[in-house]
Amino acid sequence: MLKAGSLFYALILMLLIGVVLSVLILNSSTDKLIKTKLELENELIDFNVSSIAYALANYSKLDSIEQIEKPFSNAFRFSVKREKWGFLDLLYCNSFYRKDTIKKMAIIGSNKTNKLALYLADFNKPLYLLNTKIKGDCKLPRVGISRLHINNKQYKKNVILGNISNSKKELPKINKTYQISSYSSDKIAYKDIKHNSKLINKFNQPTKVIYLDKSIDIKNIEISGKFILKSLDSICIKKTAILNDVIIQSPKIYIESGFKGSVQLFATKQIQIDKNVTLDSPSILHLMNETRDDVKIDIGENSKLYGNILLYGKTEHIRTNYLNINKNTRIIGTIYCQGTTELKGKIYGTIYTNKFKLDTGDSKYDNAIKDGEINVLDLPKDFVTINFEIENEDEKNHAILKWLP
């Protein structure tokens, strides 16, 4: 006959065994639940990737919002939204599974398939070259290319690698428009922002507009995201400012030496980029000449622009539009100048221009380039650029230019 104490210990042991078995069963169930949850999350991530791929493949057909079900499961859905931000295209893609959501935002660009390096309008003048390299196809005036002679000095030979065909008197048109809307936006006075502030506004939030007085510079501040910095006179950006993906709108814009950031600049009179400035991708210099006055984009020595330049206006304003690319300056992207370009630096991409100009200090030469380089062939095959939608260009593949936080 068992003693009472032994029976008590037996009950305790059974209870402990029951607790251990319950924990093991619960742990196994929890592991399965977590595993199932992770599998669903991974499937949702894969579905989001597929949704973005679908949106890129059908980008030109997208309206503001579309809701589409996954073909083999009613549980998975996604929505895509297309929106303009200045000259950039934004894509919002949300993927859903029950209460779980994955959100992605990106700037959309294009992967160019053509190898056009230069389009020079035909004003019945040859293109004069001296110590210049052009790698890519060229569309040039019918009178072709001539060698430039300065003081009868000997220089290296010009290098042209690519097919040459005839251009027209007018540049191909740009079919794309930009959009800068401050309607129903949050408005902020720059003078009311505290020193050394850090302002962040994600792109899924409403636009915020910061207004600047005439005498105020942008300095000692960090501004990122969906902001428009606006002045009715001029804006000076100091090197102590940190600006990412913002729009700057003013008749005149100046960027101080040493600045680094990604910006879209919209001006009507002048854009002055000092030396040793780096404008990261995707940046845009946009100057629309609304008058008959002289307007100018000037990019200083040793500066870098990863983006596009657009200088244009009414046809009769061609003689008053001037783009100056200084020595050791690099442009990685597309340039469209409805006017005159002076090229002393390097372009990795494509340039469309009506005319070239060369000023040596002693003499001035029309339609001439000295010590310049235009190179589209050495860009990576998967290089993605801002899409200008220039007429008669080869069809482009839409691709992710930059992911947004």
What features would you describe in this structure?
- The protein is mainly β and 405 residues long.
- The protein has one helix spanning 4-57; strands spanning 65-70, 73-85, 88-97, 100-111, 116-120, 127-130, 133-135, 137-140, 145-147, 159-161, 164-166, 186-189, 198-201, 208-211, 222-225, 227-230, 234-237, 242-249, 252-255, 260-267, 270-273, 278-289, 295-299, 304-313, 321-325, 330-343, 346-359, 364-366, 368-370, 373-375, 397-404.
- The model has no long low-confidence stretch (mean pLDDT 87).
- The chain has 2 domains: 4-111; 116-376, no CATH class.
- The chain is 13% helix and 47% strand.
- It has a 23-stranded mixed beta sheet that branches. Strands 1-2-3-4-31 form a 5-stranded antiparallel beta sheet, with helices on one face.
- It is elongated and about 115 Å long.
- It is built from 1 helix and 31 strands.
Strand content: over 45%
- Tell me about the largest β-sheet: 23 strands, mixed
Distance between the termini: 74 Å
What is the approximate shape?
A: elongated
Instruction: Detail the poorly predicted runs.
Output: none
Number of strands: 31
Helicity, in percent?
Answer: 10-25%
Tally of contiguous helical segments: 1
- From the helix content, strand content and strand pairing, which structural class follows? mainly beta
Summed up, the domain count is: 2
- Average pLDDT metric: 87
Radius of gyration: 29 Å
